[in-house]
Design a protein that fits this description.
The protein is an alpha+beta fold and 191 residues long. It contains 6 helices and 7 strands, in the order αβαββαββααββα. The strands form 2 sheets. Strands 2-4-5-7-6 form a 5-stranded mixed β-sheet, covered by helices on one side. A two-stranded antiparallel ribbon has the order 1-3. α2 packs parallel to α3. It is globular, with a radius of gyration of 18 Å. 25% of the residues are buried.
Length: 191
């Protein structure tokens, strides 16, 4: 009985959707990126940041902060001094598209399929546990989105994230156009 009382008392209580979700604006995206800019300045890297849109997007609370901070800190970590990092965010009535691109080391072709798995690290001497990109992928998928990677060893990497705006027609049209062979049972569809 004492254990049950402790569990009840220490379990966070979420009563409303607002306890789980947060509305993000373009201003929020700017704030997150600007907060991470000092990391790049320490390595004398250039961040080219562009953001546009006027809509808002509802995502799981704190997920956008974790997605952006992970991708940007990885770009800073794996880009050499005086390197370049490009971040483009576009929010329209259908999607939030985030692109984080760097001219760092790049990721070996054979590692690109595994890089989103937990505890997978590249052939690098950089510190890390190999959980950052796994976390990013999980958060993107929990928010009904997709993440893709384009990378070439010695040239750099480009991560692209597509997150749907709460638009029932768009989500349903995406699901009905998708061949059954590509259907991901982890993704929810609003009917």
């Amino acid at each position: 009985e004492k254990l049950l009382k402790q569990l009840r008392d220490e379990t966070p209580q979420a009563i409303e959707a607002a306890d789980y979700y947060k509305l993000y604006t373009v201003g929020d995206i700017k704030f997150i990126v600007n907060a991470l800019e000092p990391l790049a300045r320490q390595k004398r890297q250039t961040i080219d940041f562009k953001v546009n849109g006027k809509k808002r997007i509802s995502l799981i609370s704190d997920s956008l902060e974790k997605i952006l901070s992970n991708l940007i800190s990885n770009a800073v970590k794996y880009t050499p001094e005086r390197g370049n990092i490009r971040i483009v965010c576009s929010l329209d009535s259908k999607i939030l598209k985030i692109v984080v691109q760097d001219d760092g080391d790049g990721i070996d072709k054979e590692l690109q399929e595994k890089i989103f798995e937990r505890f997978t690290r590249g052939n690098t001497l950089q510190d890390g546990d190999g959980i950052g990109l796994a976390t990013v992928r999980n958060l993107v998928e929990l928010n009904q989105g997709n993440i893709s990677l384009e990378s070439k060893k010695g040239v750099g990497s480009k991560f692209t994230i597509i997150l749907p705006v709460d638009d029932i027609d768009f989500v349903n049209s995406r699901a009905t156009k998708m061949p059954l062979s590509q259907f991901d049972s982890r993704e929810k569809t609003i009917l």
